[in-house]
C-alpha cells in the first residue's frame, strides 16, 4: 500500500516538473548567464517534440512557453487530471478506455480539421482548452495503469535484488 | 521491434518527423503499435498481458527508436546533406499544398525548410541524449495507451492510490 502511494507521488511530481520546465523556459532565457543557457537548452529540448510556432504559442514571462498552446493544454490537462483522478477515482471507471480517449480527443480533432479546412481560425485559448480536454481524458485512462505498471516493475526489481543478495539473517 | 522501427522512422525521416511535432505523436504511435503487434502475436495459451509488460514494451520501442532514428537522421544528413529537405520543399511548392494551409502553418513549414541542418559530433550526441530521454518516456505512455485500447475487456478495476486492493481470498 505504501509503495502504491509513493509511486503515485513520484509520477505526479515528475509530471509537474515537466510542466514547470515548459513554463520556466521564457523566464530563464530572459535572465543572464547560466540561467539563460539553461533556458536555451529547454527550448532546444522541447523543440524536438513541438513545432514551437511563435504565433501558436502562449507568451508569458517575456517570451513564448517552451511548447505550443495545444501541447501546453495537453500537458497541463494531464497534470491536473493526474491529481484529480487520484482524488475522485470513481470518474475513471465511468466510460471504457477507448471511449474516454475518443471523447477527449474529439473537440481537438474537430478544431484541427476546421483550421485545416479554413472554416475557422481558432485562437490559442481554444487550442489550449481542447488540448487540455485531451490531456484530461488521457490521464483518466493512464493514471491507474501507470501507477499499477510502475509498482509491479518496482516490486519485481526489489524481488530480484533480494534474490541476488539472499535473505538477510535473522 | 516493429514499434521501435516505426518510432525510429518517425524520428529519422525528414517528412515523417513532423509527426513528432504533435507531442511526440510518432513515438507515442510506435509504443502503441508495439503493444498492438505483441497482443496480436500472443498465443491464446499465453498469460494475459499486464500493464507492466505494456510499459516495458513501449519504453523499449522508444529506446530502439531513439537509437535507430538518430543513426538514420545522421546518415541522411551525412549522405545527402539537405537534399531531403530540398526535395520536400520542391514537392510542397509543386503540389501547392502550402497555399491550401493556414498562413501560420505554411510559414512555419517554410521556416523549417529554410533551416539548414549541420552535422557535428556534439550536435549528434545532443540529439541522441534528447531522444534517449524523450523516446522511452513517450514510448511507455504510448505502450500504456495501446494496452488500454487493445487489451480484452475485463471487469476488475485497478485500485487507485490510497485504495485497498481486492484480496485473493
Helix and strand layout, with pairings?
The complex is a heterodimer of chains A (170) and B (169).
Chain A: H1 2-29, H2 34-47, E1 59-60, E2 63-64, H3 69-87, H4 97-116, H5 124-165
Antiparallel strand pairs in A: 1-2
Helix pairs in contact in A: 1-2, 1-3, 1-5, 3-5, 4-5
Chain B: H1 2-12, H2 25-41, H3 51-80, H4 83-95, H5 97-100, H6 103-114, H7 121-150
Helix pairs in contact in B: 1-2, 1-3, 2-3, 2-7, 3-7
Q: How many extended strands of chain B? A: 0
Report the span from N to C terminus of chain A.
25 Å
Instruction: Characterize the biggest β-sheet of chain B.
Output: none
What is the element string of chain B, with H for helices and E for strands? HHHHHHH
Anisotropy-based shape of chain A:
flat
Roughly how many Å is the radius of gyration of chain B?
A: 20 Å
Extract low-pLDDT stretches of chain A.
none
Mean pLDDT of chain B, to the nearest integer, reads 76
Task: Report what the structure shows.
The complex is a heterodimer of chains A (170) and B (169). Chain A is mainly α and 170 residues long. Chain A has one domain (3-154). Chain A is 72% helix and 2% strand. Chain A is built from five helices and two strands, in the order ααββααα. A two-stranded antiparallel sheet of chain A has the order 1-2. The radius of gyration of chain A is 20 Å and the shape is flat. The two termini of chain A are 25 Å apart. The relative contact order of chain A is 0.13. The mean pLDDT of chain A is 84. By secondary structure, chain B is an all-alpha fold. Chain B has a domain at 2-82 and 117-150. Chain B is 69% helix and 0% strand. Chain B has seven helices and no strands. In chain B, α1 (2-12) runs parallel beside α3, α2 (25-41) crosses α3 (51-80) and α2 (25-41) crosses α7. Chain B starts with a helix and ends in a 19-residue tail after the last helix. Mean pLDDT of chain B is 76; it is low at 165-169. Chains A and B meet through α1, α3, α4 and α5 of A and α3, α6 and α7 of B.
Amino acid at each position: 500500500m505504501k509503495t502504491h502511494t509513493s509511486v503515485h507521488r513520484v509520477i505526479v511530481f515528475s509530471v509537474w516538473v515537466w510542466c514547470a520546465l515548459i513554463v520556466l523556459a521564457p523566464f530563464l532565457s530572459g535572465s543572464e548567464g547560466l540561467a539563460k543557457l539553461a533556458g536555451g537548452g529547454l527550448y532546444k529540448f522541447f523543440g524536438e517534440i513541438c513545432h514551437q510556432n511563435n504565433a501558436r504559442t502562449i507568451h508569458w514571462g517575456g517570451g513564448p512557453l517552451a511548447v505550443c498552446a495545444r501541447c501546453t493544454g495537453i500537458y497541463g490537462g494531464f497534470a491536473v487530471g493526474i491529481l484529480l483522478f487520484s482524488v475522485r477515482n470513481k470518474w475513471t471507471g465511468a466510460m471504457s478506455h477507448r471511449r474516454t480517449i475518443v471523447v477527449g480527443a474529439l473537440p481537438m480533432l474537430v478544431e484541427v480539421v476546421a483550421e485545416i479546412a479554413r472554416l475557422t481560425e481558432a485562437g490559442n485559448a481554444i487550442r489550449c482548452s481542447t488540448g487540455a480536454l485531451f490531456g484530461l481524458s488521457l490521464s483518466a485512462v493512464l493514471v491507474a495503469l501507470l501507477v499499477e505498471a510502475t509498482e509491479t516493475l518496482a516490486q519485481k526489481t526489489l524481488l530480484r535484488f533480494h534474490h541476488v543478495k539472499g535473505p538477510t539473517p535473522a | 521491434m516493429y514499434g521501435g522501427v516505426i518510432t525510429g522512422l518517425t524520428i529519422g525521416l525528414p517528412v515523417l518527423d513532423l509527426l513528432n511535432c504533435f507531442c511526440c505523436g510518432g513515438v507515442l504511435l510506435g509504443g502503441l503499435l508495439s503493444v498492438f503487434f505483441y497482443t496480436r502475436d500472443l498465443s491464446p495459451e499465453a498469460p494475459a498481458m499486464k500493464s507492466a509488460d505494456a510499459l516495458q514494451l513501449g519504453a523499449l520501442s522508444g529506446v530502439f527508436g531513439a537509437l535507430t532514428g538518430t543513426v538514420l537522421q545522421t546518415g541522411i544528413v551525412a549522405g545527402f546533406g539537405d537534399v531531403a529537405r530540398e526535395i520536400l520543399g520542391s514537392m510542397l511548392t509543386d503540389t501547392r499544398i502550402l497555399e491550401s494551409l493556414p498562413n501560420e502553418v505554411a510559414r512555419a513549414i517554410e521556416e523549417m525548410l529554410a533551416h539548414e541542418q549541420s552535422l557535428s559530433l556534439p550536435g549528434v550526441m545532443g540529439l541522441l541524449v534528447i531522444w534517449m530521454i524523450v523516446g522511452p518516456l513517450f514510448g511507455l505512455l504510448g505502450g500504456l495507451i495501446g494496452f488500454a485500447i487493445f487489451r480484452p475487456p475485463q471487469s476488475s478495476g485497478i485500485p487507485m492510490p490510497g485504495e485497498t486492493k481486492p484480496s485473493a481470498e
